[in-house]
Amino acid sequence: MHFVRHSLFFCGTKEAEYLGGNVFYNENKANEGKEKMDQMNMRNLGFDDTLAMAAAADPALYPGRIASQSRDLFRVLTAQGELLAKPAGRFRESAAYPAVGDFVLLDRDNAAGGYGKIERLLPRRSAFVRKEAGTGSREQVVAANIDRVLICMALHQDFNVRRMERYLSIAWDSGAVPVIILTKADLCGDLAARLAEVKTAAVGVDVLVTSGWQGEGIDAVRRQLEAGRTLAFLGSSGVGKTTLINCLLGESRLATGAVRSDGKGRHTTTWRELFVLPDQGVLLDTPGMRELGLERANLGRTFADIESLATQCRFKDCQHTAEPDCAVRRAIAAGELEAARLESYQKLQRELLYAGLSARQRETEKLNAMFANVGGIKNVRRFAAAKKRR
Protein backbone atom coordinates (compact mmCIF):
# COMPACT_ATOMS: atom_id res chain seq x y z
CA MET A 1 0.00 0.00 0.00
CA HIS A 2 1.42 3.34 -1.06
CA PHE A 3 0.84 6.56 0.92
CA VAL A 4 1.27 10.17 -0.17
CA ARG A 5 1.55 13.13 2.22
CA HIS A 6 -1.10 15.76 1.55
CA SER A 7 -2.07 19.16 2.85
CA LEU A 8 -3.95 19.48 6.12
CA PHE A 9 -6.86 20.95 4.21
CA PHE A 10 -8.80 18.73 1.79
CA CYS A 11 -8.19 20.04 -1.72
CA GLY A 12 -8.21 16.87 -3.82
CA THR A 13 -4.71 17.38 -5.26
CA LYS A 14 -1.33 15.86 -4.51
CA GLU A 15 0.48 19.17 -5.18
CA ALA A 16 -0.81 20.86 -2.00
CA GLU A 17 1.86 22.12 0.37
CA TYR A 18 2.56 20.50 3.69
CA LEU A 19 1.08 22.75 6.39
CA GLY A 20 2.37 21.05 9.54
CA GLY A 21 1.20 17.85 11.25
CA ASN A 22 1.50 14.34 9.78
CA VAL A 23 -1.62 13.66 7.74
CA PHE A 24 -1.52 10.75 5.28
CA TYR A 25 -4.19 9.61 2.87
CA ASN A 26 -4.33 6.30 1.06
CA GLU A 27 -3.51 7.15 -2.58
CA ASN A 28 -5.99 4.51 -3.79
CA LYS A 29 -8.80 6.50 -2.15
CA ALA A 30 -7.58 9.97 -3.05
CA ASN A 31 -10.29 10.46 -5.68
CA GLU A 32 -13.16 9.43 -3.46
CA GLY A 33 -14.14 13.06 -2.79
CA LYS A 34 -17.77 12.34 -2.03
CA GLU A 35 -16.77 10.01 0.76
CA LYS A 36 -14.59 12.71 2.28
CA MET A 37 -17.27 15.39 2.73
CA ASP A 38 -16.70 15.27 6.48
CA GLN A 39 -13.15 16.52 5.90
CA MET A 40 -12.52 20.10 7.04
CA ASN A 41 -11.01 22.75 4.80
CA MET A 42 -8.49 24.13 7.27
CA ARG A 43 -7.85 27.19 5.10
CA ASN A 44 -11.53 28.07 5.33
CA LEU A 45 -11.28 27.79 9.11
CA GLY A 46 -8.58 30.47 9.08
CA PHE A 47 -5.53 28.21 9.29
CA ASP A 48 -3.10 30.40 7.32
CA ASP A 49 0.60 30.18 6.48
CA THR A 50 1.66 31.90 9.72
CA LEU A 51 -0.15 29.30 11.80
CA ALA A 52 1.17 26.53 9.56
CA MET A 53 4.76 27.63 10.24
CA ALA A 54 4.08 27.68 13.97
CA ALA A 55 2.54 24.21 13.80
CA ALA A 56 5.47 22.83 11.82
CA ALA A 57 7.63 23.08 14.95
CA ASP A 58 5.72 20.07 16.33
CA PRO A 59 5.31 17.78 13.30
CA ALA A 60 4.04 14.88 15.42
CA LEU A 61 0.97 16.90 16.47
CA TYR A 62 -2.18 17.78 14.54
CA PRO A 63 -3.73 21.24 14.17
CA GLY A 64 -7.35 21.99 14.91
CA ARG A 65 -9.65 24.83 15.90
CA ILE A 66 -11.85 24.90 18.99
CA ALA A 67 -15.52 25.19 18.01
CA SER A 68 -17.17 25.03 21.45
CA GLN A 69 -16.44 24.35 25.10
CA SER A 70 -18.20 22.65 27.98
CA ARG A 71 -16.06 23.19 31.09
CA ASP A 72 -12.80 21.34 30.37
CA LEU A 73 -14.12 19.46 27.33
CA PHE A 74 -13.63 21.04 23.91
CA ARG A 75 -15.12 20.24 20.52
CA VAL A 76 -12.27 20.68 18.03
CA LEU A 77 -12.42 20.85 14.22
CA THR A 78 -9.55 19.15 12.38
CA ALA A 79 -8.68 18.16 8.82
CA GLN A 80 -10.42 14.84 9.41
CA GLY A 81 -13.65 16.23 10.85
CA GLU A 82 -14.10 16.87 14.55
CA LEU A 83 -13.35 15.31 17.92
CA LEU A 84 -13.69 15.97 21.62
CA ALA A 85 -10.49 16.86 23.44
CA LYS A 86 -9.24 17.85 26.88
CA PRO A 87 -6.32 20.19 27.58
CA ALA A 88 -3.07 18.74 28.87
CA GLY A 89 -2.59 19.06 32.62
CA ARG A 90 -0.02 21.84 32.34
CA PHE A 91 -2.72 24.25 31.08
CA ARG A 92 -4.24 24.30 34.57
CA GLU A 93 -1.21 26.24 35.80
CA SER A 94 -0.96 28.42 32.71
CA ALA A 95 -2.49 31.84 32.12
CA ALA A 96 -3.02 30.87 28.47
CA TYR A 97 -5.97 28.48 28.71
CA PRO A 98 -7.71 27.31 25.51
CA ALA A 99 -10.78 29.26 24.38
CA VAL A 100 -13.37 29.04 21.62
CA GLY A 101 -11.75 30.12 18.35
CA ASP A 102 -8.24 29.06 19.37
CA PHE A 103 -6.05 27.10 16.99
CA VAL A 104 -4.42 24.24 18.87
CA LEU A 105 -2.17 21.24 18.35
CA LEU A 106 -3.51 17.83 19.38
CA ASP A 107 -2.17 14.32 19.80
CA ARG A 108 -4.62 13.03 17.15
CA ASP A 109 -6.87 14.35 14.39
CA ASN A 110 -9.88 12.04 14.66
CA ALA A 111 -12.26 10.65 17.28
CA ALA A 112 -10.87 7.10 17.17
CA GLY A 113 -9.57 6.01 20.54
CA GLY A 114 -11.53 8.38 22.77
CA TYR A 115 -10.83 11.98 23.75
CA GLY A 116 -7.92 13.78 22.16
CA LYS A 117 -5.45 15.88 24.12
CA ILE A 118 -4.72 19.54 23.47
CA GLU A 119 -0.96 19.79 23.74
CA ARG A 120 -0.28 23.36 22.62
CA LEU A 121 -1.92 26.68 21.76
CA LEU A 122 -0.94 28.34 18.50
CA PRO A 123 -0.41 32.14 18.44
CA ARG A 124 -3.58 34.24 18.66
CA ARG A 125 -4.08 37.08 16.19
CA SER A 126 -6.88 38.61 18.27
CA ALA A 127 -8.60 37.97 21.61
CA PHE A 128 -11.57 39.19 23.61
CA VAL A 129 -10.83 39.30 27.33
CA ARG A 130 -12.95 39.69 30.46
CA LYS A 131 -12.47 39.18 34.17
CA GLU A 132 -12.86 35.55 35.14
CA ALA A 133 -15.92 35.12 37.36
CA GLY A 134 -15.07 34.93 41.07
CA THR A 135 -11.36 35.73 40.65
CA GLY A 136 -11.33 39.49 41.03
CA SER A 137 -8.82 40.67 38.45
CA ARG A 138 -7.70 37.48 36.65
CA GLU A 139 -8.40 37.67 32.94
CA GLN A 140 -10.20 35.09 30.83
CA VAL A 141 -10.18 34.91 27.03
CA VAL A 142 -13.79 34.85 25.83
CA ALA A 143 -13.03 34.21 22.15
CA ALA A 144 -9.90 34.15 20.00
CA ASN A 145 -8.81 34.70 16.41
CA ILE A 146 -11.72 36.91 15.37
CA ASP A 147 -11.21 38.91 12.16
CA ARG A 148 -14.33 41.06 12.15
CA VAL A 149 -16.68 41.89 15.00
CA LEU A 150 -20.28 42.55 14.04
CA ILE A 151 -21.57 44.72 16.88
CA CYS A 152 -25.33 44.31 16.87
CA MET A 153 -27.65 46.94 18.33
CA ALA A 154 -31.42 47.10 17.95
CA LEU A 155 -32.96 50.32 16.66
CA HIS A 156 -35.87 50.40 19.10
CA GLN A 157 -35.81 50.25 22.93
CA ASP A 158 -32.32 48.69 23.11
CA PHE A 159 -30.73 51.59 21.17
CA ASN A 160 -27.80 52.96 23.21
CA VAL A 161 -24.91 54.80 21.53
CA ARG A 162 -22.91 54.91 24.78
CA ARG A 163 -22.98 51.11 25.01
CA MET A 164 -21.93 50.90 21.37
CA GLU A 165 -18.88 53.08 22.15
CA ARG A 166 -17.95 50.62 24.87
CA TYR A 167 -18.16 47.66 22.49
CA LEU A 168 -16.17 49.54 19.84
CA SER A 169 -13.36 50.24 22.33
CA ILE A 170 -13.15 46.56 23.24
CA ALA A 171 -13.34 45.44 19.61
CA TRP A 172 -10.54 47.76 18.46
CA ASP A 173 -8.34 46.62 21.33
CA SER A 174 -8.89 42.93 20.51
CA GLY A 175 -7.19 43.27 17.14
CA ALA A 176 -10.37 42.65 15.13
CA VAL A 177 -12.14 45.10 12.81
CA PRO A 178 -15.57 46.25 14.07
CA VAL A 179 -18.68 46.61 11.93
CA ILE A 180 -21.92 48.06 13.31
CA ILE A 181 -25.09 46.09 12.55
CA LEU A 182 -28.31 47.96 13.38
CA THR A 183 -31.12 45.43 13.72
CA LYS A 184 -34.93 45.55 13.88
CA ALA A 185 -35.21 48.52 11.53
CA ASP A 186 -38.91 47.72 11.10
CA LEU A 187 -39.49 48.77 14.74
CA CYS A 188 -37.67 52.12 14.44
CA GLY A 189 -39.72 55.31 14.18
CA ASP A 190 -36.93 57.64 12.99
CA LEU A 191 -34.23 55.66 11.21
CA ALA A 192 -32.43 58.69 9.74
CA ALA A 193 -31.93 60.34 13.14
CA ARG A 194 -30.61 57.20 14.81
CA LEU A 195 -28.35 56.39 11.89
CA ALA A 196 -26.85 59.88 12.17
CA GLU A 197 -26.19 59.34 15.90
CA VAL A 198 -24.38 56.09 15.22
CA LYS A 199 -22.23 57.45 12.39
CA THR A 200 -21.17 60.40 14.55
CA ALA A 201 -19.97 58.06 17.30
CA ALA A 202 -18.48 55.39 15.01
CA VAL A 203 -16.31 57.40 12.63
CA GLY A 204 -14.63 55.20 10.03
CA VAL A 205 -16.66 52.11 10.95
CA ASP A 206 -19.02 50.46 8.44
CA VAL A 207 -22.67 50.69 9.53
CA LEU A 208 -25.27 48.26 8.14
CA VAL A 209 -29.03 48.38 8.73
CA THR A 210 -31.06 45.17 8.86
CA SER A 211 -34.47 43.77 9.64
CA GLY A 212 -34.34 40.04 10.32
CA TRP A 213 -38.04 39.45 9.88
CA GLN A 214 -38.25 41.34 6.59
CA GLY A 215 -34.86 40.20 5.32
CA GLU A 216 -33.65 43.76 4.66
CA GLY A 217 -29.90 44.34 4.70
CA ILE A 218 -29.02 40.64 4.94
CA ASP A 219 -27.14 40.70 1.62
CA ALA A 220 -24.91 43.52 2.93
CA VAL A 221 -24.11 41.43 6.01
CA ARG A 222 -23.50 38.38 3.83
CA ARG A 223 -20.83 40.30 1.92
CA GLN A 224 -18.79 40.34 5.13
CA LEU A 225 -18.30 36.58 4.69
CA GLU A 226 -15.07 35.35 3.13
CA ALA A 227 -13.15 32.08 3.09
CA GLY A 228 -10.70 32.00 5.99
CA ARG A 229 -12.40 34.92 7.79
CA THR A 230 -14.03 34.61 11.21
CA LEU A 231 -16.96 36.85 12.09
CA ALA A 232 -18.14 37.26 15.68
CA PHE A 233 -21.53 38.63 16.65
CA LEU A 234 -21.53 40.76 19.80
CA GLY A 235 -24.28 42.71 21.46
CA SER A 236 -26.82 42.76 24.24
CA SER A 237 -29.25 39.92 24.79
CA GLY A 238 -32.15 39.78 22.39
CA VAL A 239 -30.90 42.23 19.72
CA GLY A 240 -31.31 39.71 16.90
CA LYS A 241 -27.85 38.11 16.62
CA THR A 242 -29.31 34.61 16.40
CA THR A 243 -31.79 35.61 13.70
CA LEU A 244 -28.96 37.08 11.63
CA ILE A 245 -26.81 33.97 12.03
CA ASN A 246 -29.70 31.74 10.93
CA CYS A 247 -30.13 33.92 7.84
CA LEU A 248 -26.45 33.57 6.97
CA LEU A 249 -26.48 29.83 7.63
CA GLY A 250 -29.56 29.45 5.43
CA GLU A 251 -31.40 27.42 8.06
CA SER A 252 -32.85 27.76 11.55
CA ARG A 253 -29.86 26.10 13.21
CA LEU A 254 -30.21 28.20 16.37
CA ALA A 255 -33.34 28.73 18.45
CA THR A 256 -34.76 32.25 18.60
CA GLY A 257 -36.93 33.63 21.38
CA ALA A 258 -40.34 35.18 20.93
CA VAL A 259 -40.59 38.96 21.05
CA ARG A 260 -41.59 40.26 24.48
CA SER A 261 -44.48 42.61 25.11
CA ASP A 262 -42.07 45.59 25.22
CA GLY A 263 -40.80 44.80 21.73
CA LYS A 264 -37.47 43.33 22.87
CA GLY A 265 -36.24 39.93 21.82
CA ARG A 266 -35.43 37.22 24.34
CA HIS A 267 -31.86 36.11 24.95
CA THR A 268 -31.42 32.56 23.62
CA THR A 269 -27.66 31.97 23.16
CA THR A 270 -26.08 30.48 26.29
CA TRP A 271 -22.62 29.50 25.06
CA ARG A 272 -20.03 30.41 22.44
CA GLU A 273 -19.93 28.28 19.31
CA LEU A 274 -18.31 28.32 15.87
CA PHE A 275 -20.35 27.61 12.75
CA VAL A 276 -18.55 26.78 9.51
CA LEU A 277 -19.86 27.97 6.15
CA PRO A 278 -18.41 26.07 3.17
CA ASP A 279 -15.88 28.36 1.42
CA GLN A 280 -17.29 31.38 3.29
CA GLY A 281 -15.42 31.28 6.58
CA VAL A 282 -16.65 30.92 10.13
CA LEU A 283 -19.33 32.51 12.31
CA LEU A 284 -19.08 32.82 16.10
CA ASP A 285 -22.21 33.27 18.18
CA THR A 286 -21.77 34.54 21.73
CA PRO A 287 -24.02 35.08 24.75
CA GLY A 288 -25.01 38.63 25.71
CA MET A 289 -22.12 40.86 26.77
CA ARG A 290 -23.29 41.65 30.30
CA GLU A 291 -20.12 40.21 31.83
CA LEU A 292 -17.67 41.76 29.38
CA GLY A 293 -15.76 44.29 31.44
CA LEU A 294 -13.32 46.91 30.31
CA GLU A 295 -10.04 45.31 31.38
CA ARG A 296 -8.55 46.41 28.06
CA ALA A 297 -9.88 48.87 25.51
CA ASN A 298 -8.68 51.13 22.72
CA LEU A 299 -10.24 54.48 23.59
CA GLY A 300 -7.87 56.31 21.27
CA ARG A 301 -9.40 54.63 18.23
CA THR A 302 -13.01 54.93 19.39
CA PHE A 303 -12.72 58.53 20.59
CA ALA A 304 -10.18 59.78 18.05
CA ASP A 305 -12.09 63.07 17.72
CA ILE A 306 -11.75 63.86 21.44
CA GLU A 307 -8.09 62.85 21.62
CA SER A 308 -7.33 64.97 18.57
CA LEU A 309 -9.03 67.99 20.18
CA ALA A 310 -7.13 67.33 23.43
CA THR A 311 -3.83 68.00 21.67
CA GLN A 312 -5.00 71.61 21.22
CA CYS A 313 -5.67 72.18 24.93
CA ARG A 314 -3.33 74.56 26.80
CA PHE A 315 -2.37 71.89 29.33
CA LYS A 316 -1.13 68.46 28.29
CA ASP A 317 -2.85 66.86 31.31
CA CYS A 318 -6.11 68.76 30.77
CA GLN A 319 -9.06 66.91 32.32
CA HIS A 320 -11.58 68.84 30.16
CA THR A 321 -13.50 70.04 33.19
CA ALA A 322 -12.73 73.61 34.35
CA GLU A 323 -9.24 74.21 32.91
CA PRO A 324 -8.71 77.40 30.86
CA ASP A 325 -8.28 77.17 27.08
CA CYS A 326 -9.70 73.64 26.87
CA ALA A 327 -10.23 72.81 23.19
CA VAL A 328 -12.61 69.95 24.05
CA ARG A 329 -14.92 72.21 26.07
CA ARG A 330 -14.79 74.80 23.28
CA ALA A 331 -15.95 72.17 20.79
CA ILE A 332 -18.87 71.28 23.05
CA ALA A 333 -19.83 74.96 23.43
CA ALA A 334 -19.71 75.37 19.65
CA GLY A 335 -21.94 72.34 19.11
CA GLU A 336 -19.17 70.40 17.38
CA LEU A 337 -19.02 67.69 20.07
CA GLU A 338 -21.74 66.19 22.26
CA ALA A 339 -21.23 66.61 26.00
CA ALA A 340 -22.59 63.05 26.41
CA ARG A 341 -19.78 61.70 24.24
CA LEU A 342 -17.15 63.37 26.45
CA GLU A 343 -18.87 61.96 29.54
CA SER A 344 -18.80 58.49 27.97
CA TYR A 345 -15.09 58.86 27.19
CA GLN A 346 -14.29 59.97 30.74
CA LYS A 347 -16.40 57.19 32.24
CA LEU A 348 -14.56 54.54 30.22
CA GLN A 349 -11.23 56.12 31.16
CA ARG A 350 -12.10 55.78 34.85
CA GLU A 351 -13.23 52.19 34.39
CA LEU A 352 -9.95 51.32 32.70
CA LEU A 353 -8.04 53.01 35.50
CA TYR A 354 -9.88 51.06 38.20
CA ALA A 355 -9.80 47.67 36.44
CA GLY A 356 -7.99 45.10 38.58
CA LEU A 357 -7.62 47.38 41.62
CA SER A 358 -8.76 46.51 45.14
CA ALA A 359 -11.50 48.55 46.81
CA ARG A 360 -8.89 50.55 48.75
CA GLN A 361 -6.83 51.21 45.62
CA ARG A 362 -9.93 52.34 43.72
CA GLU A 363 -10.81 54.75 46.51
CA THR A 364 -7.29 56.20 46.44
CA GLU A 365 -7.45 56.70 42.68
CA LYS A 366 -10.83 58.43 42.99
CA LEU A 367 -9.46 60.80 45.62
CA ASN A 368 -6.37 61.51 43.52
CA ALA A 369 -8.62 62.37 40.58
CA MET A 370 -10.79 64.59 42.82
CA PHE A 371 -7.78 66.54 44.08
CA ALA A 372 -5.70 66.41 40.91
CA ASN A 373 -5.45 70.21 40.76
CA VAL A 374 -3.53 70.29 44.08
CA GLY A 375 -1.24 67.34 43.43
CA GLY A 376 -3.42 64.46 44.64
CA ILE A 377 -4.70 63.19 47.96
CA LYS A 378 -1.22 62.96 49.52
CA ASN A 379 -0.72 66.72 49.18
CA VAL A 380 -4.16 67.34 50.67
CA ARG A 381 -3.29 65.19 53.67
CA ARG A 382 0.06 66.97 54.12
CA PHE A 383 -1.68 70.33 53.97
CA ALA A 384 -4.29 69.24 56.52
CA ALA A 385 -1.61 67.88 58.89
CA ALA A 386 0.45 71.07 58.64
CA LYS A 387 -2.60 73.20 59.32
CA LYS A 388 -3.46 71.06 62.37
CA ARG A 389 0.04 71.58 63.81
CA ARG A 390 -0.28 75.37 63.71
Overview of the molecule:
This protein has 390 residues and is α/β, with parallel strands linked by helices. It has three domains: 121 residues, Beta Barrel (OB fold (Dihydrolipoamide Acetyltransferase, E2P)), CATH 2.40.50; 141 residues, Rossmann fold (3-Layer(aba) Sandwich); 82 residues, Ribonucleotide Reductase Protein R1, domain 1 (Orthogonal Bundle). 27% of the residues lie in helices and 21% in strands. A six-stranded mixed β-sheet has the order 12-11-10-13-15-14, with helices on both faces. A five-stranded mixed barrel has the order 3-4-5-7-6. A two-stranded antiparallel sheet has the order 1-2. A hairpin with a 2-residue loop joins strand 4 and strand 5. It is globular and about 80 Å long. The chain starts with a strand and ends with a helix. The N terminus is likely disordered.
